[in-house]
């Protein structure tokens, strides 16, 4: 690939989010989606027709053998992330990997090891880091406006939002978990990033399943499969202790009997000099001036290109400039370690210390 060549991309998994990635990369002049595959072939063929993708492969292994491809996007159910990402890196492809990194920390460690050997870019797909309000808050944090951030409350609480009941989403061996691993991973990733990436040390958490097993709390994302089953949590709560002494509390649900403000994601950052709230599409900075509280409302440009465009371009920039992405392999592993520790803490009732060894 020369500096003027388009980066050629293959998409593995042409479902909901695979489609979103194809749309985003199709808008970028110096990239081209030239191959697609899906175990459900009609899906791959339909996407190829819609976006003029020249090559449809029957399997991801065949796609990985295509020497013209520089990079792949892995947009398959969670249990297939590790095997496909590892094979892709071994085949010499750069990888944009959907979240969560893997269904458990052991598989995430295998991906990190394959990445270290490969010398290729491995980027996690966490588009929330590229949301305008979140970026503006990060900029203020980097300028010192919040001082030292010592406590963060984050979460994503849905009242009635179980996705694809009975499909891979709600089967532990395929998904690795429920809302914690599905939407909690985004909030964990974004919070740690805004906090300046302190290292998580220990975790205390509990998970519950009060709706899913009774086929209640069903949302609109994904088509239910009533012949399937549900063995993941539908609510999780956790307190994470970081190596700089700060604390992060995380609450997520797909379903719960309460009246949440907007069913959406939120983050409250509390610092020694200032704070920030991000929720319901609003971002506010807080401080105290002249012994009074003072708030500054952040705004988003009306022609903002959106987080997914910025994220897609970042992936391409990292490939061209041999840079480590913002959402690096290590950030994916960090998230996996914390998520697994929350499940373990829930099972054992104990505080869990994170195991960072790569063996
Ligand atoms: N970043 C985000 O905002 C976001 C949003 C939704 C989903 N996701 C993640 O994206 C991934 C996919 O989710 P989705 O909602 O698109 O699911 P989906 O079920 O709509 O799509 C997954 C597709 O992968 C295909 N597939 C399964 N195994 C395959 C294999 N071995 N090779 C090729 N194709 C295979 C399936 O046939 C299906 O079409 C999940 O890991 C999910 O957590 C991320």
From TrEMBL:
Domain of life, per lineage: Bacteria
GO MF: nucleotide binding; oxidoreductase activity
Keyword entries, A-Z: Oxidoreductase
Pfam families in the record: GFO_IDH_MocA, GFO_IDH_MocA_C3
Gene3D superfamilies assigned to the protein according to its UniProt record, in alphabetical order: Dihydrodipicolinate Reductase, domain 2 (3.30.360.10), NAD(P)-binding Rossmann-like Domain (3.40.50.720)
Domain Gfo/Idh/MocA-like oxidoreductase N-terminal: 7-126
Residue ranges of domain GFO/IDH/MocA-like oxidoreductase in the record: 136-276
Name of the protein in its database record: Oxidoreductase
